[in-house]
Specification:
- The complex is a heterodimer.
- By secondary structure, chain A is an alpha+beta fold.
- Chain A has helices spanning about 15-25, 35-40, 80-85, 85-90, 90-100, 105-110, 110-115, 125-130, 150, 225-230, 240-250, 260-284; strands spanning about 5-10, 30, 50-55, 65, 70-75, 135-140, 145-150, 155, 160, 165-175, 180-185, 190-205, 205-215, 220-225.
- Chain A is about 35% helix and about 25% strand.
- In chain A, a hairpin with a 2-residue loop joins strand 4 and strand 5 (about 70-75).
- In chain A, helix 10 (about 225-230) runs antiparallel to helix 11 (about 240-250) and helix 11 packs across helix 12.
- In chain B, helix 15 packs parallel to helix 16 and helix 18 (about 690-710) packs across helix 19 (about 760-780).
- The chains are: A alpha+beta, B alpha+beta.
């Protein structure tokens, strides 16, 4: 559990960080909280010549809420997300999700930017960002660009971020609705056996908008448009939820691992998606 | 020297903080401040660091090892391979189980993670970098991870070194992957009773492979002083004196030239009993380089290479009358020992004390046979927070009782009650040869059932089943019963030894002139709190306050020879030695007091902390007075000073027991199990420190929860360890740990000087079947008989699925 030798860089502004990435190309990687990268380096499954630590870049931190517009700096920790009262009012699902990530020690250090940028299918925030229809800002040598969370992921650890880009922040519109994040895991610190985010809006007695996304049930987060569509215009009765769950299950392809075989995971996914929908609807 | 203001007798008793006092643990002052002193804290001048190159394969021939690139790394001092150790005859070493094991791969590797080369460098990071550069050419061989397949005729030969050897340390080997067959009991009589019994239940009960996983992994610092020829080894040793003897026998260094020190140890649970290749390599490297060498394994190395626990396939048959009287019990175990037989059992017991498998029940006839088998897995088979194979035995009988209850259509609590050994039967001779020293099972059982309102729970469970069938709930209720009996405190020298060393233990006491004392023992605490509790034993024996008694362990240069701490033996054996040494102190003190008071010895009586002249309570000498006198008075016929030593050979084991009940909510759709209530009644005989006991019970139950509900060392079919990190190896945190209710009865051991029996392992032994039986019991109404642990989410889900509960 000892990594190979590497150079450690600790820039204080984004330009310097980007310059270091530009200088060392694919030998360099940025580190945010380090909960994914450092274990991989210790296992010598990742040999990184240059580690660029982002923690001293003040511009990457903070939470700003302007009406319904929410911006979260990439280096904001899970602990800070949990403790932010404005955020809890604007998008309570963020706190609900962050509280289900590992343990307090991890959450003091782990960041939302690292969680979404790494492309690990086990991470919880990517599916949540898709559920919220968030947008990621990527800064590169030629300036910044924005990519929708629903377009960002291409496979396990494969995203639209280029090697010379840094994910700097996340923005989304907090449009309310009933929100819920349900997760089954074996224990604290484990990735989800199955997890689902649901945001439902209610107009009178019927569902006016629905967004359903899932964690660790494919090699990338899954936003199920079909599941949401199955609920819109309905009263979210049992049969409607059945249809939404069936639609969501049609969009996932879980892998067997130590948590269990595919058949089990699909079954649990159905239960967890249903619970998320029911909970979100109850809160709508 | 007498107190100016007399205090009450009660106050004097209280001041001692002796037996029965919930004295705060003296160790915790340093542990809670991060001031413990563990082996990895030790830094010696010029110290070098070792790191292993380990096999990625479970079975392969090592065709060549090229260490040139590693040796070329600046800072690398040496790279050891089997070839380098062979001239010293240290490329193999004997195991505690009468087998031998490779220190470094000698021609082949037999399990994933096996040590192949040892890189020594002046920096830990350099050692790790250089280990990457050792080039090993492997030729993969067929892998056997299933002990049943290992015994098939065409199975690959694992131990080529044993080619042609048809007998081993424990008798005949009937197959090239067979280690031993060990038997106890009367097979013919047992088979006869079973074949004609009114009711027979038969079941395969698997206790899966797991690992003690102490928070501190194994490691050592070996330091050879080239000037005076003395070897000092600091390490994570549960039995430092045995390590010294083994080191002497292996190295040829005379035993007085070896000092073994166990500093603070961060949990052992059996993992730190044996001798590992890392210790041998560090010692050799220190001798070769003349510098101290540190070796500390990381978590993955600990889980994959140092000693595992369990892995017993137990095929049982239990016979009974129609009304539930058990008439016979039979068990055949297929025991997966991995690549080398490195179980840490007393020498004559290759299956440990598994023959305690008749448990708490009066079973007239029984038989057990255990076949030890080699596979391509890590060696070990240690007693993970239990006496040797006792938790396997307890799990086996407590599952068989449940299965028999199903077969009979009987309540499992009642089935236990009618078969318990009765109070008046103690000392009780078991069918498999043990003499249970004491017990009162019915009292404990009734207390437990009343405490949890057993009948009420059964009614609630029945209602739940009906509600489930009506579709009103998806959760079932399980009531997990266990009544366990342990056999601990190994043990009588006449039949218990480790490498020929009788399993006595020891205590040496020195009373200082001003009335304080130091006691040194042959055991070593790994978290048990010996410095707290042994001082309490002594306080009650000699009348000096526990706060004035320092307890020291773990340094073989100062501590008397002892066999160490495991198998709940510290209190039964070393605790007894402590009491006996204290009594020697008191006997001499009585002579001194008689001289000082100018009376005959026989005119004195002991009263808490002093000798008092019979009939004249105002005339007395306290132990403090006597201590001072022993150093400054010339007393005819009495040597100066006040010291004693006792080597205690226990006349029998002790037999702690307990009644545990777990109430569990089981979600049939997700497989999630939540412990709603856990009641643990322990009878460990005389209770030394109730707070320490409660802490032990909480810790042991949490380990039991882990084992029953998720913790395992799992292999894939080509021998890769699938659970080598704490992501997959379940180690509960406070979050997963339920609330426990503890309770007790107190049945003192008749042969132990203070009646104590040991408690540290009871909760693991009794907890595992309690949790497991709760899971099983939840599904009893739907036809479940047996489902193997660990009961993680998907396995519980699969039970429900296979029973058709998912519609």
């Amino acid at each position: 559990m000892i990594p190979a030798a590497f150079e450690y860089h600790r820039p204080t502004d984004l330009a310097a960080a980007l310059a270091t990435l530009g200088e060392f190309g694919d030998e360099a990687r940025v580190v945010a909280g380090g909960h994914s990268l450092i274990p991989m380096m210790k296992l010598r499954m990742a040999e990184i010549g240059h580690v660029v630590d982002l923690q001293d870049i003040a511009d990457l931190k903070g939470i700003r809420i302007d009406g319904t517009a929410v911006w979260i700096g990439a280096m904001t920790t899970q602990h800070e997300l949990i403790g932010h009262q404005g955020l809890a009012a604007a998008a309570p699902i963020l706190r609900e999700t962050a509280l289900q990530i590992a343990d307090p020690q991890v959450r003091y250090v782990g960041t939302i930017g690292g969680n979404v940028a790494n492309g690990d299918p086990g991470n919880d925030m990517p599916a949540l960002m898709q559920c919220l229809d968030a947008t990621f800002t990527l800064a590169g040598p030629n300036g910044s660009r924005e990519v929708a969370a629903r377009d960002f992921y291409e496979g396990a650890y494969v995203t639209l971020r280029e090697d010379d880009e840094i994910l700097t922040g996340i923005r989304f519109e907090a449009t309310g609705g009933g929100q819920a994040y349900e997760k089954q895991k074996r224990k604290i610190g484990d990735y989800a056996t199955a997890a689902a985010a649901a945001i439902l809006k209610k107009d009178g007695t019927s569902c006016s908008a629905a967004s359903i996304a899932m964690t660790n049930l494919s090699d990338m987060p899954v936003w199920s448009k079909a599941a949401g569509d199955a609920l819109v215009g309905t009263a979210c009765a049992a049969a409607d939820i059945d249809a939404a769950v069936a639609a969501a299950l049609g969009d996932i392809s879980p892998n067997a691992d130590n948590r269990g075989p595919v058949e089990f995971k699909r079954h649990v996914a159905g239960i967890i998606i249903r619970r998320a929908i029911e909970q979100a609807w109850a809160r709508a | 020297m007498n107190e100016l203001a007399p205090i009450s007798r009660e106050q004097r008793v209280e001041n001692l903080k002796g037996l029965g006092c919930s004295r705060k643990r003296v160790e915790d002052v340093r542990f809670t401040q991060g001031r413990g002193n563990y082996v990895d804290d030790l830094k010696l001048p010029g110290m070098l660091y070792g790191d292993f190159v380990r096999s990625p394969y479970a079975h392969a021939r090592v065709k060549s090892v090229d260490k040139s690139a590693a040796l070329a790394v600046p800072g690398v001092v040496a790279v050891l391979t089997a070839e380098d150790l062979a001239p010293l005859n240290l490329h193999w070493m004997p195991t505690l189980a009468g087998d031998k094991q490779m220190v470094l791969a000698d021609g082949k590797v037999l399990f994933q993670g096996q040590e192949v080369a040892f890189v020594v460098a002046n920096d830990r990071y350099v050692a790790a970098d250089a280990a990457e550069l050792v080039v090993i050419d492997y030729e993969e061989l067929p892998v056997v991870v299933d002990p049943f397949k290992a015994l098939e005729p065409g199975a690959p030969v694992l131990r080529e070194d044993l080619d042609g050897q048809t007998t081993g340390a424990h008798g005949d080997r009937r197959h090239h992957n067979h280690i031993f067959l060990w038997e106890a009991g009367d097979k013919a009589a047992t088979d006869e009773v079973i074949s004609s019994a009114e009711v027979v239940a038969e079941e395969m009960v698997y206790y899966h492979r797991t690992h003690p996983c102490p928070l501190e992994t194994c490691g050592c610092v070996a330091s050879m002083d080239a000037v005076n020829g003395k070897l000092t080894v600091h390490g994570t040793f549960q039995a430092p004196h045995v390590v010294r003897t083994v080191a002497s026998l292996l190295s040829g260094i005379e035993e007085h030239k070896i000092r073994v020190v166990s500093p603070d140890i961060g949990g052992g649970f059996g993992n730190k009993v044996g001798v590992y290749p890392g210790y041998v390599c560090a010692i050799v490297a220190s001798i070769v380089t003349g510098k101290p060498v540190k070796w500390i394994e990381d978590r993955m190395e600990n889980l994959t290479a140092t000693a595992f626990a369990r892995d017993y396939w137990m095929k049982g048959r239990i016979a009974a009358t129609k009304d539930g009287r058990i008439t016979a019990l039979s068990c055949h175990v297929t025991a997966d020992h991995g690549a080398f037989d490195a179980c840490a059992d007393p020498t004559k017991f290759p299956a440990g004390f598994f023959s305690i498998m008749t448990g708490s029940y009066d079973i007239p006839v029984a038989h057990v046979g255990v076949d030890g088998v080699y596979t391509n897995k890590a060696p070990g088979g240690v007693a993970y927070r239990c006496s040797f194979r006792v938790t396997e035995a307890a799990y086996f009988i407590e599952r068989m009782i449940e299965v028999l209850a199903i077969e009979l259509g009987m309540d499992a609590a009642e089935l236990r009650r009618i078969n318990f050994i009765r109070k008046e039967q103690f000392p009780y001779q078991s069918a498999l040869g043990w003499e249970y020293d004491s017990g009162d099972y019915h009292t404990a059982w009734d207390k437990a059932l009343t405490a949890i309102d057993y009948q009420g729970l059964r009614r609630e469970q029945a209602d739940r089943v009906e509600a489930f069938r009506r579709g009103e709930t998806r959760k079932l209720l399980g009531i997990g019963l266990t009544h366990f009996t342990e056999i601990v405190g190994a043990g009588p020298v006449k039949n218990c030894d480790i490498l020929g060393m009788g399993m006595f233990d020891s205590c040496e006491i020195r009373i200082h002139p001003t009335g304080s004392a130091v006691a040194r023992l042959g055991t070593i605490s790994q978290g048990q709190g010996h410095a707290t509790t042994f001082a309490q034993i002594l306080a009650s024996e000699i009348g000096l306050p526990a706060d004035s008694i320092t307890v020291e362990e773990g340094d073989t240069d100062t501590a008397p020879y002892g066999l160490g701490t495991y198998g709940s033996r510290s209190t039964p054996v070393a605790g007894a030695a402590t009491a006996m040494a204290g009594r020697k102190i008191r006997a001499k003190a009585q002579m001194i007091a008689a001289y000082l008071l100018e009376v005959h010895d026989g005119d004195l009586e002991w009263d808490v902390d002093r000798f008092v002249v019979k009939g004249a309570p105002e005339r007395f000498k306290t132990m403090k007075d006597i201590a001072y006198a022993s150093y400054n008075q010339a007393i005819p016929g009495v040597e100066p000073g006040l010291e004693a030593v006792s080597y205690y050979d226990p006349p029998n084991m002790t037999y702690p027991f307990g009644a545990y009940i777990c109430v569990m909510e089981v979600d049939v759709d997700t497989g999630v199990c939540d412990v709603r209530q856990f009641y643990a009644l322990d009878d460990c005989g005389t209770r030394i420190n109730p707070m320490v006991i409660e802490g032990q019970v909480h810790g042991g139950l949490t380990e039991a929860l882990a084992i029953a509900m998720g913790q395992e060392i799992a292999y894939d079919e080509i021998g890769n360890v699938k659970t080598a990190t704490l992501m997959d190896f379940f180690l509960p945190t406070a979050w997963e740990t339920p609330h426990y209710t503890t309770d007790f009865t107190e049945t003192p051991s008749p042969h132990h000087p203070i009646g104590a029996k040991g408690v540290g392992e009871s909760p693991n032994v009794g907890g595992v079947p309690a949790f497991s039986n709760a899971v099983h019991d939840a599904f009893r109404a739907f036809g479940l008989r047996q489902s193997h642990m660990p009961h993680d989410h998907w396995r519980v889900w699969k039970i429900a699925h296979d029973l058709g509960l998912h519609g």
